[in-house]
Amino acid sequence: MINRERIINTFCELAKIDSLSGQELNISKELIKRLSNIGIKAKLDTYGNVVSQTNSEKTLILSAHMDTVQPGTNVKPIVTSDRISSDGTTILGGDCKAGITAILEGLTSLKEDRADYTDVEIIFTREEEIGLHGAQNLDFNKLNSKEAIIFDGEGPVSQITVESPTAIEFDIEITGRAAHAGVEPEKGISAIRIAADLITRLPQGRIDSESTFNIGRIYGGSVRNTVPEKTILNGEFRSLNMETVDSINILLKDKIKEIQTLYPDALIKETILENFESYQITDDDPVLIKIQNALLKLGLEPEMKPSGGGTDGNIFRKNGVDSIVVGMATHNMHTLREYVTISDLVDAAHFCEAILKSK
Ligand SMILES: [Zn+2]
How many angstroms does the Cα of residue 200 sit away from the middle of ligand 1? Predict the structure, then answer.
């Protein structure tokens, strides 16, 4: 039976294990141990993802990521009536430990009840938050399942992500020329000035209902009294619409060219990389139908929502695994105000159990 107290304990224990992106070794060992306690043999793959496989053809992947964002060390979960939150100095890490908790509880309950259930492949990935690296390094050839449910959405488990954007990352490196700012500034070319000029020509924030653009980081210069020689910009843009992605891409390159002509003696180098690729789930998607049926049986009304974020689901789908992202009871993810609704987390565990029972 799904056990509310056990869910709260599991979640709090996992939340207390530091697992910033790139530092998932401790949590991965703990998860392998916990899976082993419920009869599931899992191990680390070459990249450090936790993977359990079966030989069965008829299997389903349940997945969540192990890493959390900053500030995420020394998390102190606080349980109040129907909420778990942090003490306000860190994120909670409900993203994605709520998902992991729901999966573990669903499996524990099935084992306890000696229930007959579908073979399952569990995947807990690393470094999702910094660019889906764990999923990108999974060996998809070794997985039997072509279907996956990923716990990484906001809100209750009945909230299903039906659209996710394409995301493009870009870095622009501007090299000007250093010179003493007080003695001979005319010999210098300010890379910061060029960066500023470029930024004001680019979009910022929401472009339209399905597209966004952001310069998230800028660094450059050396000291106060030197004309800055180098400046680097890190940015990204996203859209649910591929044509918009292409047109923003063209705009970005045009503006860089424009600036290059204005400052012919500077060197402007851009690197543009696709981070993840958009998808849209159709009504007849077999995994979607399974999820909807399981939710309805539990008395939960499925709610379809587009998302502006990417998840491991983008990578799974690109590799031929029909994957759907569901909510995992978290709210205000990536902020100090993050919290998990306990009743929703209990529902997510019930959902895991139900989906595995419905062969
Ligand atoms: Zn997440």
Answer: 32
Q: Is residue 135 domain-shared with residue 203, that is, in the same domain? A: no
Residues 24, 157 within the same domain: yes
In the set 24, 67, 129, 338, the catalytic residue is 67
CATH number of 309's domain:
3.40.630.10
Question: What pLDDT digit, counting tens, does each position of 260-314 carry?
Answer: 999 999 999 999 998 888 899 999 999 999 999 999 999 999 999 998 888 999 9
pTM of the model: 0.85
For residue 220, report the distance from its CA to the centre of ligand 1, in Å.
31
Residue 18 annotated as catalytic: no
Cα 245 to Cα 53, 212, 252, 272, 311: the distances in Å are 37, 10, 11, 12, 18
Domain of residue 74 covers: 4-164+278-357
Same domain, 118 and 202: no
CA distance 325 to 314: 10
Q: What is the pLDDT of residues 195-218, one digit of tens each?
A: 999 999 999 999 999 999 999 999
